[in-house]
Amino acid sequence: MENNLKQWAKKILESAEISINGQNPWDIKVKNDKFYNRVRAQGSLGLGESYMDNWWECDKLDGFFYRLLSSYISGSRLSLPVLLGFARAKIFNLQAISRAFEVGEKHYDIDNRLFFDMLGKTMAYSCGYWKAAKSLDEAQEAKFDLICKKLDIKKGQEILDIGCGWGGFALYAAKKYGAKVTGITVSKEQIKYAEKFCEGLAAEFKLQDYRELNSAYYKNKFDHIVSVGMFEHVGEKNYKTFFKTAKNCLNKDGLFLLHTIGNPKTANNTDPWLNKYIFPNGMLPSLKQIASNAENLFIIEDVHNFGADYDKTLMQWHKNFIAKWPKLKNKYDERFYRMWNYYLLSCAGAFRARSIQLWQIVLSPRGVKGGYKPIL
Predict the structure, then answer these.
(1) What number of other Cβ atoms are within 10 A of residue 107's Cβ?
(2) 3-class secondary-structure state, position 126
(3) H/E element holding 149?
(4) Where is the active site (predicted)?
(5) Is residue 224 a contact partner of residue 159, using CB atoms and an 8 Å limit?
(6) Overall pTM surpassing 0.85 (yes/no)
């Protein structure tokens, strides 16, 4: 039986030009023969957990996933965890307001020091814009500037940042463009950091879910709205509510920029391993889901895909993480190291294979007069 499972895995991987115990840096080295049955039974969850358990190794995980996903072979199959995930997403609202703070508590509140060491001085936890950038910090500031230009932010304008993170965009928009920024997040640690990060600037931060904006800001219309790397936590059942909330908070002549990771195909579930260990209750939207839920609320003025830049961003985060690990390992164990390593490099490989995307979408409540002029 074990030999049959090994042959099954070998056949699948060979079609992606990956060998078991081969010499290439993207080949996998199996240390525990139970690996084959675990992956066969649990799909991507078994693949990730067995790596965390040190059952297999790979010198270049990003290269492994790039080849795997480029060949249109998924590490996930219709195993029990996958089927249960689909069922849960269909039956329950996994991103209901009662669960809104779960991802903050389990991921974003881990440790501000860890994120600072990994993300750099901008504390931007989203795709950088590498068109002319030569470093991670330059790419993140270029992304902030791109957003400000796409929104045509003017001095004194009031900006709402839905999912403000550690305040990187707020700092940039307030400092460079003279904007007044209100940021909201579901992470207590992000609020603490953002308030110190933006001290002395026209920026304030609130610990709240976006759905609370209806009552808190219904009469306070913002000149523009930005949401960077937060829509992945909204969920299919809440997309319409999200867009309605944004429209209620936006001036009739304002613009809304949505920056989100996207799925090239419509789905209602996420990768089981990422859901369990990194982003609980996450879901990647498709353009179809975004467009259908924005219908009758917004005009889609511009769609810009620079998902390939996320590969570079993730590889830089990984480089920083590895460089800082000698210090971080005093707080985190080897299993955490392998989990974080797997997370960053598997995602880099996925963006390199173009199996997931990064979109910046500009929307307006009633259409820009004369037409929106795209900025790249």
Answers:
(1) 17
(2) coil
(3) helix 136-151
(4) 347
(5) yes
(6) yes
Look up tokens 């965890």; give the residue: 81
Residue type, 334: E
Lookup result for tokens 């219908």: 295
- Domains of the chain, residue spans: 2-89, 99-307+356-364
Q: Which two tokens stand for residue 127?
A: 């795709």
Other beta carbons within 10 angstroms of residue 289's beta carbon come to 18
**Whole-Å CA distances, 47 to 274, 290, 342:** 11, 31, 10
CB 237 within 8 A of CB 93: yes
Are the CB atoms for 157 and 180 separated by under 8 Å? Answer: yes
CA 334 to each of CA 54, 110, 327: distance values in angstroms, whole numbers, following the listed order: 10, 16, 13
Residues 242 and 221 sit within 8 Å (Cβ to Cβ)? no
**131 in helix, strand or coil?**
coil
CATH of segment(s) 99-307+356-364: 3.40.50.150
- How far CA 74 is from CA of 39, 296, 305, in Å, comes to 11, 36, 23
What confidence tens digit (pLDDT) does each residue in 257-283 have? 999 999 999 987 788 899 889 988 889
Catalytic residues: 347
- State the chain's mean pLDDT as an integer: 89
- Token pair 């230009």 is found at 149
Take residue 365 and report the two structure tokens written for it: 């409540």
Specify the pLDDT at position 228. 98
Q: Which two tokens stand for residue 104?
A: 């903050």
